[in-house]
């Protein structure tokens, strides 16, 4: 049975770097990795928290140097995503993690764009690029990054905010978000992953985000939940990531059902699938099994993903019809479910 059609809205392209490709690119670029084998590298994938993961995530990016590297990375992700039912993908990238290593921002954007254009052509998959600022770097660095991206803004749909959350509140980035909005870009931000509900309020009220990435800690603040429900602000939740980064203890304890029950516009996504044990379809399968979600709920999650996507209304309606088509023909669930 084919997988349910979905939009993936929370996906760091650098987080799709599988060990196999990391070693291949290291060889191609003459980069020496601090691991002798892929198995040795995989042992490092047992994370204690977000920072522990980020240390490895940034270290492995050393292998990404040329336009071809970024195109190969995105092609590999898109091939896997397509197999798992992704019809539309909104893809984060971290320009500062590359420019600080001497890789020009144009190399990153051109390489990724080549893969995105090709998959639209060959498989009709639509995509967007979301340029993220690293929140543990300065507000000035974010502004410089935004200005350096101006010649490429026709390729960028939105700005985002990621990396180490605690101690780096959204309000630090007020100005760069104002500039992005003035340039016609959509705005999203990671908030309420490790950080408190106050950071979600700031993302809404100071940055004016269109979506909140993660947002699971909103449940600690009743008034915040009421606001998110009233405005139907989408939350891009990443269940397997939350377990691997110890935001929740076990998938069986994940607040996804409570979030749906509260009326929040929740979507399911993979975050950094090469590191967290699964792509988006694997996340659907995992929550179905661990949380006992029925087929109707899985379809709601798929529908939500298209409702929350940065799509024109005609394309959105076409994708929503694909989800309803699954319902009518009795297909549902992932990977034979
Ligand atoms: N960068 C990549 N994955 C991230 C996550 N889960 N949270 C914050 N920054 C990230
Ligand atoms: Zn993320």
Architecture overview:
This protein has 337 residues and is α/β, with parallel strands linked by helices. It has one domain: TIM Barrel. The protein is 49% helix and 14% strand. The protein contains 16 helices and 8 strands. An 8-stranded parallel β-sheet has the order 1-2-3-4-5-6-7-8. Helix 4 runs parallel beside helix 6, helix 7 runs parallel beside helix 8 and helix 15 packs antiparallel against helix 16. The longest helix is centred in the middle third of the chain and has 19 residues. The protein is globular. The protein starts with 5 loop residues before the first strand and ends in a 9-residue tail after the last helix. The C terminus is likely disordered. The structure holds adenine and zinc ion. Adenine binds next to helix 3. InterPro entries: A_deaminase_dom, ADE, Ado/ade_deaminase, Metal_Hydrolase. Catalyzes the hydrolytic deamination of adenine to hypoxanthine. Plays an important role in the purine salvage pathway and in nitrogen catabolism. Belongs to the metallo-dependent hydrolases superfamily. Adenosine and AMP deaminases family. Adenine deaminase type 2 subfamily.
Order of helices and strands: EHHHHEHHEHEHEHEHEHHEHHHH
- The CATH topology name reads TIM Barrel
Count, helices:
16
Q: State the CATH class.
A: Alpha Beta
Question: Helix share of residues?
Answer: 40-55%
